[in-house]
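TICKET: design request
STATUS: open
ATTACHED STRUCTURE:
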């Protein structure tokens, strides 16, 4: 239970980063997690169809608590939440289940491109955002569960698409304009919420030879003729988060739902930066969930004649976990605060902000798996059994550091702050640029 009156809480979530309204929201999500997710967290990965446990929880979170409109502008009935509030939410939900948290975060992410364009000055982006919001926002602010998706990754190239040095030349999904319509062809893979999304933001390129000039972002609703999916991936964990392929076969949408060229590219780069504080918050939430489980177990279980947590070897592991939680939390809160004050700290897609975002992200997500595995030693065989709640965090931890380009791409982006590192996919001994 989150005790907002304790001194430890105040030190962990300082007033300079978290205001009163955000604190109230955090409490709502903490209580939601304790009430709705914790009692069933060991059963979520067995709910293969999602009908029994997962979808009812998502309805409560996304519709009743209004999270599916978190990234929709207030002008359209949305919550337009700052990133600090979103990060606090992700930490609390992630403490219970990373999959549910990822589902919710990715619906927000699906709206980030238009939210950014709507709130920025350039008129082309604003007109695009308005067209998309006019058409689709009303569906997301109602009482039905709605799902959004950023459909970017492809089988041949996922990191390569997220790698800004490639200037979108590896994007395989093609868009072309025919009269007043976009026609889309190609395949996507891996996106969270794919296959259940009502709305996809699809990353395309009109002509990879032209790179950024031909880069295109197009919103595609579902169901729609020509859009189909593969089977849902069976993963190590994270059952509540759906991932599958999306096939686009001569899919047609109105011209005003797409935006192309450098403006679209800038929106995409900012969209790629947005999850850095949020997935870092997930990582801290996962670690907190594992730590709480471990603290309780090691305080009760006696081995070697005393409670396990009284052995110094165990205390060293618990202390290390608490230390990484403290530093990770401070880092994601500071980062989210900086994102929320672009006027002071600069745009999200600047070299320095991208470096900072990745630096925080690779630290928090990279530390997770080894620490949680170390902690499992303290539970002995009990840590490996589903109903004791620990092994779930171990499985969730493994994937947190694979998303968003993974740890390697994150380090490369961080280095760009200090020197001109070339990690593009093109050049001698690598791919040839499309000719
Ligand atoms: C649970 C989950 C949710 C996801 N959600 C989404 C989503 O919502 N939308 C979406 O579009 N995608 C999503 N993805 C895909 C995700 O973004 C990619 O999986 C991720 O970027 C890694 O791509 P990949 O798995 O194809 O690895 P690859 O691209 O094959 O990369 C493999 C390895 O190579 C490293 N690498 C990359 N570039 C370089 C380089 N230049 N030099 C050296 N090494 C390099 C990487 O760091 C990685 O370690 C999701 C994936 C998962 C597992």
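STATUS: resolved
RESOLUTION: sequence designed for all positions
ATTACHED SEQUENCE:
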């Amino acid at each position: 239970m989150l005790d907002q009156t304790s001194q430890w809480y105040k030190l962990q979530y300082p007033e300079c980063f978290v205001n009163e309204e955000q604190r109230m929201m955090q409490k709502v999500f903490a209580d939601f997690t304790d009430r709705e997710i914790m009692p069933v967290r060991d059963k979520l990965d067995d709910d293969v169809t999602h009908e029994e446990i997962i979808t009812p929880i998502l309805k409560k979170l996304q519709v009743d608590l209004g999270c599916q409109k978190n990234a929709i502008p207030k002008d359209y009935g949305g919550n337009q939440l700052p990133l600090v509030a979103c990060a606090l939410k992700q930490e609390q939900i992630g403490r219970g289940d990373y999959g549910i948290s990822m589902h919710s975060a990715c619906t927000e992410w699906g709206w980030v491109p238009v939210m950014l364009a709507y709130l920025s000055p350039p008129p082309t982006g604003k007109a695009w955002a308005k067209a998309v919001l006019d058409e689709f926002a009303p569906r997301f602010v109602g009482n039905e569960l709605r799902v959004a998706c950023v459909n970017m990754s492809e089988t041949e190239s996922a990191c390569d698409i997220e790698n800004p040095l490639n200037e979108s030349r590896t994007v395989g999904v093609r868009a072309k304009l025919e009269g007043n319509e976009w026609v889309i062809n190609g395949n996507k893979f891996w996106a969270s919420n794919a296959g259940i999304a009502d709305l996809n933001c699809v990353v395309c390129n009109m002509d990879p030879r032209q790179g950024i000039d031909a880069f295109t972002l197009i919103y595609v609703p579902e169901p729609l003729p020509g859009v189909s999916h593969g089977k849902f991936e069976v993963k190590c964990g994270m059952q509540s988060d759906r991932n599958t392929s999306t096939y686009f076969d001569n899919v047609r949408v109105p011209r005003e739902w797409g935006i192309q060229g450098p403006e679209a590219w800038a929106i995409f780069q900012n969209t790629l930066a947005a999850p850095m504080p949020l997935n870092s918050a997930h990582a801290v939430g996962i670690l907190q969930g594992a730590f709480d489980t471990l603290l309780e177990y090691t305080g009760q279980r006696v081995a070697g004649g005393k409670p396990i947590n009284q052995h110094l070897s165990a205390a060293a592991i618990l202390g290390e976990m608490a230390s990484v939680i403290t530093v990770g939390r401070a880092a994601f809160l500071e980062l989210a605060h900086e994102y929320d004050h672009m006027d002071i700290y600069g745009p999200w897609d600047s070299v320095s902000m991208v470096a900072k975002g990745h630096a925080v992200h690779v630290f928090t997500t990279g530390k997770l798996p080894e620490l949680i595995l170390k902690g499992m030693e303290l539970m002995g065989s009990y840590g490996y059994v589903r109903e004791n709640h620990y092994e779930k965090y171990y499985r969730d931890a493994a994937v947190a550091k694979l998303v968003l380009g993974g740890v390697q791409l994150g380090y490369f982006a961080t280095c760009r702050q200090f020197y001109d590192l070339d990690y593009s996919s093109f050049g001698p001994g690598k791919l040839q640029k499309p000719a």
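CLOSING REMARK: The first strand starts at residue 148 and ends at 151. The two ends are 58 Å apart (CA to CA).
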